[in-house]
Every structure is written in structure tokens, then in C-alpha cells.
Amino acid sequence: MGRGQAFTDHRETEVVKTTTRTTVKPLSSSRETGWMWQARYLPLIILTVLFAGVLAALIGISVLLAQTTAKLNTCNAARPQGVTAAPTVTVGPTGPPVEPEEKLIYRLSEANEGILPTHYDLILQIHVPVTSAADEPIPVADRFTTKGSSVAITLRTTKANVTTITLHARHDVPEGSQSGHLQKFKEGAVTVTEKPISTKSKTIPVTSVEYLKADIIVIHLGEALTATTENITVEYSLKFEFEGFIGDDNEGLYRSQYKKGSDTKYLVTSHFQAYKARRAFPCFDEPGIRSTFTTTLRYPATFLMTRTNTAEVRPAQNWVAPNGTVLWKESVFERTKPMPVYLNAFLVSSADDFKANTVESDLNTPPLPISVIGNADIIAHGAYALAQSQAIMKELAKVYQEPYDWPKLDMVGVPDYNAGATENWGLVVYRESSLMYEPGVSTADQKRGVSAIVSHELSHMIFGNLLTTEWWGDVWLNEGFASYIEYRLMEAANPNWGTKYLFTYWTTKRALESDSQPTTHALHNPAVQTPAQIDAMFDVISYEKGAAVLHMMSGVMREPVFTAALVRYIDRMKGTGSVKYEDLLAELDNVVAPAESSFDLTTHMKNWILKAGYPVLTLTRSAANPGALSFKQTKFTLPIGANDTSIAPDATVWDIPFTLINGGVLGADAVSAAAERTCWLTARSAETLPDECSTVTDALASDDSYLFANVQQNGFYRVNYDRDNWDKIISALSKIDLGADAADFTILHDPISRGQLIDDAFNLAKIGLTPSADITKPGDYSIPMHLVDGYITTETKYGPLASALDNIRYLEQMLRGPTTYPPFSAYMTRLMTPLYESASPWDNAWTDAAEPNATPNSEETYDSVMFNNLIIETACFYEVDGCLKEAVRRFSAWLNLGPDQAFAPGNSSAPLNIIQTKSLALCYGMRSGSSAQWNDMKTLLINSTITNSNKLALLRGMACSDDDSRIEELLELSADGITIRAQDVGSAFSYIARFPKGHALAWNYLQKNWKTLARRSSIIADIGGSLKSNWQLAQLRELYEVALDGKEPRDVPEAAAFERAIARVETNILWTSKYAAQVASLVKTLRQPNP
Predict the structure, then answer these.
(1) Strand partners of residue 508
(2) What is the pLDDT of residues 189-226, one digit of tens each?
(3) Per the annotation, does 479 bind a ligand?
(4) 395 labelled as ligand-binding?
(5) Is 286 tagged catalytic?
(6) Helix-, strand-, coil-residue percentages of the chain, each rounded to 5
């Protein structure tokens, strides 16, 4: 799954047995969530049994069946020799409703031992009109339902005496509905029939059906199922006829809407990951359960663009519903390969409005059709993604030696999608703005984003689809791999961008920050059970830490060896498809072991996977003996509350892959070689390095230069040094010539290392670990602030600059106050002015080779564009005079273009360079803008047909207003569900909260309107996590109680976000009390003019 996802509420249901029938009315609300089984169209569950065996098996089964009734023997006698007939079941009354004790079943494997679903025959009937017009032929009562749908699940059991079948089915009611739960079956509704169906059948009672939490149902049978053995195969067909809702919450099977002229039009699509397939049809909704699927879609004839995971068996045919007058079409699709149910995907849309661009790729033989599908008005913008997909798929197949074994690859962009994308096999669904790139209008960052998300999703074709985590407690085996591989694929497809070195900034840095929270979790998390807990696993730890740990494995093993091991892992595990972390480590060990018999990767990596957090490695060089280096590792954890202990008590000892280089070593090759000389530090502490580290002790020569550990940040840990070593690093960095020749290249010339140093220094200071110049005093911020202040104006690379400014932004948020903010803001203005003036950032345009009149190979590196934009962002934020004046000039010129030209292609050739800097010009131009200008932007936002990415640029600009009433109006617009799509509400709140006034207004709005907002987890993370006072903490906890609403945290989707936010606020409170005055005093001494 791509980044940016969020999940909506997953409400619980009670355990109820009943035999009465209840009429359930369709929802009248336009914001139904999920779907619910409808009792007024009674579900039909048919258990169909096919016995195939030889004479010996027939005898055995006959003995068993003889114990039921004589009628069964009569049926069997009438059947051909060698075929064993199964009984059919007529269900009798089950008695009055029974309220059993609460059952907590979250894993089907816990309740269904031995039961294996092998195939689904799914028929979905889509009752959705093309438009919202009142004259649409679909009856109003049937609209937005799947009335008339059915699914037949073929299954078998390998365990004897099975009398229950447990699976998932949506039986919850959306909030606000007046209808009850469907909790009833009546006589004749559940039958067991032989396969093929025969009129000669014997009936067996089904005792009851239970509805449990997490949309689990349990079917209790009056007779045990017969187990499949070596001698006989017994298959059952479990059939449901059902009606469900097609909601508008972007989850399960849902409807999305878009404008075509003055019409509101609909399409139907799906988002099932991780546990939302049950919202569309009854199923075994777990990642470790793989089945094949045959799908039939029935839909109004006005829809003709239909897609699922596989190709159509034949062109769509006319279909007439029983007693129906609406003209329908029916599309039947080919059988899939075995896959988890969440990888199913559907698209039903208008052929006039949605088009496909297709190429026949030479990736496979015969050629593989790859398509981009999207709104016909912007389908041309999918050309870049289409070209990227071909290059990416070729690289993926070449590196991992695994061809794409699927008949097609469709990539569809839909207007509403909570995630950035989902990797459904054969039909990858993207948020429209994540897939479309418009030359001359879209920014460099948007182009990079398209490449990144396509790389990520297509990585899943192997790591996620072909090999799927057995359970969501190891989701990093899907998402960590895709996050790791996407950078390699993106670099291969765009070698001139210069983004490869940014892996550690985008991934490792973010993972280290998240994993330092006391609320973090391990990569392998066996505690995951509930839907809310599953949601919480799709986070920075599973994505970024998973990728960083894989990067560490690759660094230790060397990339070619690591890749070869992955090739073997894929080949060994693709037969079963379901994987555990032990499978990965075993194969990595198998590849390395012949060469290094003492190398035990499983042991070395165990705590990196099974334990939360990571270590900080403190190195101390002996002044008396420069050749001696002591080390100590402790868990790096942010303190919370009044607890002044920076390192939480933890007995974990990590096996640390240790690399070391001396600052006096010259040459880029020498730096790379040092990154490969690895030894393991397996003790908590020692006065000297272990003997096996002799390969790295060259760095400890008598040379008096500084030491640098964790070379090029291959390891997932932080490094601290003694004060003398830190001072030497600060001195060397302040004198560095970043334009030096390769022969004079040192470790500090490496941008990865500069970013690593800066991030480690600030975070060590954050918990008081940086050594003070006065050994009698605790650590302070002098090391990180002098590190940055001494050299940053000469920085030329985006990664290190961003690392510095990210950490400084935390200081800015914490120092907001009448006595601490003015000196800090004044210092930042002094710091950014020379950097802004030397860079001329507005004039450094990205010239896209696809733009009109562009010369070949004229595209600049992505790094340089982002570097310049970051300078503008920061300089204007701290009110560098030249920056603000230029922003106002460009903003005014942009408004003067008029609404028809404001986002028209081709403006990149104008001197304003509005493409790359438009969001910055709109923001800081609007900062001092007038009400009339703000209203002009509002008109564009509401009435324009511009792309969603351009709407977000407008939104960001409007969010920068310094006027309370405008921000309050924007908050209302962002949450109305019309102006801004629900998927973008989190982004809107993030933009608004960038400035102190906006943050306060957003926090107040969030508290008052909690229950009506979408994307609440991301809003809590952005808004709640940056609060810093005790009274705000009390407000946050009070809001958490509102969100819990009497439920257990494990059952509330936003619980994890709240708990992380509360821990961060406790850290913020402690930090403010210890460091705010200190930092405010320190910055007064920096960058002052000479007297």
C-alpha cells in the first residue's frame, strides 16, 4: 500500500443468535460507511459437498454416512459407482434468541483449524446510477446497493469433526442508521447440497449462526464436516446471497464521484486492504489465506468501463434482472491465481468519461498489456506513469529474476482514494493525483512522487502479492520491502535525478524519529489482533523502519550477496505465498553461511526485528592511548512527563554492525571501503573493541583527526562521541570545501554523513546526551547548534540542509512564547539571509524534457530543485526581506493571469517560474494578502475544474493567511466534504497548522468537531503532537476519552495516534522546562556582527 493511507471507523457488533426475520431499510444518509447484510433479502448459505474418491474411500465414507439416516443410503445407492454422495441439509427453527457470553475471535486460524477455502465464485450486482439525476432508471430504494449479489466459496477441511465454519461478513450498521443488525436465518435458509446439485437430498439441521466482533460470523452445523485425507478429497461450497451498501467512505466497495460539466457522476471501485473485503462480500479476510477467484460483474448498461484483476472472458453481454426493467450488462472475468482476498479490486465506470491508454510491453512473451486508466479529460497526464511502469517492471524482473506472471497490469486513477495506492494484482488502484503528471503544470516533486509511488506499488508485485505476510503483525515483510526497493527502481528509471543518497533522509531518519517514541512497536508484533491494531501497523515502523533494517542487512552482507539471497527467498517461498520473518532470515543465512561459517545473521538480526526501538552507541577515545576505544550501547528513548530519565530501563542488547573511519582518510573510494568493513558489537559495553573488529581498527591510528562511526548510515542506530571528538568534527565541518576534488574527499564530504551527524546531534541533545563542555553539567544544545551554524551557509545538498531545518523546526514549535521566540526568530533570519542571497533560489527552474520547447537532457536534478525550494520556504517563514518581497511580486503576477490561465500549461516558460514555486508564492504572497485576493483564491478553489493537486496548492496558499476569520472559514471549507475531498482533509489541517495562529485555531476546531471529521488519525498526529503545555495535554486526553466513547483502545482506529500524540506532548512539556530558556539564550550569541 502506498503512503498516505487512513482507515475509517470499524465499529463492533454484538453476539446474537436469532431465528426471526427483520426488515432493514436502506440508508437515507449520503455518507454510508461499508456495507451491511440486508435481512429483507434473506441471505442464503448453501453448503455444497463434492466427494471424489476410489472404491476404498467410498467404503470408508459410507460407514460414516450410515450413521446419519437411511435416506442417505438410498441417495448413495442411486449414484454411479465410485462417487460418494453427500447429504443435503434442511434447517429447522433454532429457537428463541440467545445472548451468549462475549467471544473474542480476531484470527480465523484460531477458530478454523483445518479449514481451507480454495476458490470463490463471486457475482456482484452494482446498483449505482451514472449520475445523481432524479430520472436515473435504478429505483431509489435500490441505489448504492449490491442487491442480487452472491458468492460461493469452495472449501475443504483437513481436520475431522469440524462442526463450525468461521469467516468474515459485514453485519455492522453505519452510524446514524435506524435499522438493526442482520442477525437471523430461518427454516430453509441454510442448506447443504451435493455437488452437482441433486433433487435427491437428505436434510441435516444447522443449529445457529453467531455474529461476533470485527464482523466475524460463526456457522454452527448439526453434523461434522468430512475431512479431506490422502485417499479422498471432500469439497464444500459455502454460498451466500446478499445485499450490501456501496458507501462513500473510500473503504470496501465504494462509490466515488466527479463533475462532468454541471453533472455529478459516479463510479464504483474498491479498497480492501487490510481487512475491508468483508465489507463487499462474505470471505476469509486474512492475508495468509490464499484462494482463486472468478468474478462476474453486473451493472447498468450505461457503465461500460469495467475492470477486475484479470481480463474479461468475453465482451460484456446484455443481462436482464428477474422482474427488472433496467437494462444491465454482465462481464465475466478469468480465474485469478491464488491470492489473499484483500488483493481483489473492481472498477465500474462510464466508458465516455474514463479511458485507457495501453502499451504492449515486451516484458513478457506474449507481450504484456500495461494500461493507465483515468478520467478522459486528464488521461494524457498518465503518459509519464505508463512509461515509468515499463522501466520499473523491467528492472524489477531483472534484479530479482522473477517475471511478472499475470495476464495484464492496469493502473487506474480514481478521484477518491484514502491511500496513495494499493497493489491489487493486475489492477493497481491509485489516488488520481498520485498517478497523473502534467508537463508544464505539475512540479518536480509531483513528478518524483509519481515515480516513487509507481515504484512502490510495482515492488509489491513480488513483495506483497507473490509473497504475502502470513499475518498483519509482520506487515513490514510487505511494506518494508516495497519501501526499500522503490528507491532502487526509481533511481534506475530516472538516473539523472540524483535521489539515491536521499534514502537515509527520507527513510532512516524518519524511522529513527518514530522508533524513539515510548509508544513504538517491534517490526514483528504478535499482539496485533483487532482491526484497529491492524490499522496501526501501517505506520512508519512497518514502512520506513522495515526498509532501514533491510538496508542494514544489505550493507552487512553487501548488496550483490543480499540480492542473490532475496532471489533464492522468492524462489523458495513463492509456492506457498505466505511468509514469516523466519523464512527470510533462514534464506539469508543459507546464502551467507558457506562463505562465512561463523556468520549467524538470524542471531544478529533477532532483536532488530523482535524488539521495539534501537540503540545509541557511545564511543569514547582514550586521551592517553588513542588506539583504545571504549563503547557503550543503551536504548534511545524520548523521556515523557515528569520522568527525567532520558534512557528508559531496557535490558535489550542489540548486535550492532560497526563501521569506523578516521577523518584524515582521503578519497571517495576509501570512504566506501570503510562502509563495507563491518564487525559486530554484541556486548552492552567494553573498554576496548572486540578482537573481531581488527578490520576497522585502522581508524584508531595515531592520527589526531576525528573518528566517524556508522559510515554512510548503513546501521539503524545513533552514534554519540566524547566532547573532544565532537569539537573536532565541528571544526572540520566549519572549514570544509564542499567543492573539493575527489582526491580530497573525506567522510564529511559525503552528504549522507553530514545529514546523519546533524540528525544524531540534535536528537542526542533532545534527551541530554550530548556531552557538555563543562563535565559537571548535563548535556546541552551547544553541539548541534554550533555544528549547523558553523557551516550551513555553504551547504549545497538537499538532504543535509533538510535534516538541519527539520530539527530546527522542532525548536521553533517549542520556543513559541513571548520571551523565547523573538531571539530564536531573529537568529533564524540571520542564518537564512546569506543562504537565500547566495542561492538565488527562485531562478533555478526544473526544465522538464517533456515540456514545450525544452531541449534534450535539460532536466535538472531533483535534488537541486528541492534544495532551492527549501531555502525559499525557510527564508520566507523567518521573514527574510528579499524572500517575502519576491513572493508578493510573483503572487500578484500570478493572480493577474486570471482564472482561465492561473493553472494553464506552458507558464513554466515565464520568468515567474510559477510551476516549481507556485505553492510557495501563493503561501507567502497570501501571508500579507488582502481579503479580495483571498476570496479570488477561494473562488478558484470552489468553482474551478483544476486538478486536485492544484487545488491543494490553492489550499496551502489560503492556509497561510494571517487573518483569523479567513482561517476559520478555511477550516469549515476543508471539512465540508465537498470543497476538499475527504482524503485531503489531513493535508489541509497540516497546512493551516504551519503557523502558530493557524495551529491554535485548528486545535480548537478539532476539539469542537471531532465526530464530523475525516482523516482524524493524521490530524491528531499533526496537531496534537506539537502541543506543549499541561493544560493542552489535559485537553488532548479529554478528546481521547471522547474518541474512545467507552470502547477499549484496541477497538478504536485513532487510539494509536492519540497515544503517540500524548507521549509526544509529555516529551514536549519536559523539553520546554529543561531547554527552552537555554536555547533562547544560546542563539543570542550566534551570528552576531563583529563589534
Answers:
(1) none
(2) 444 444 444 555 444 467 777 878 778 888 888 888 88
(3) yes
(4) no
(5) no
(6) 40, 20, 40
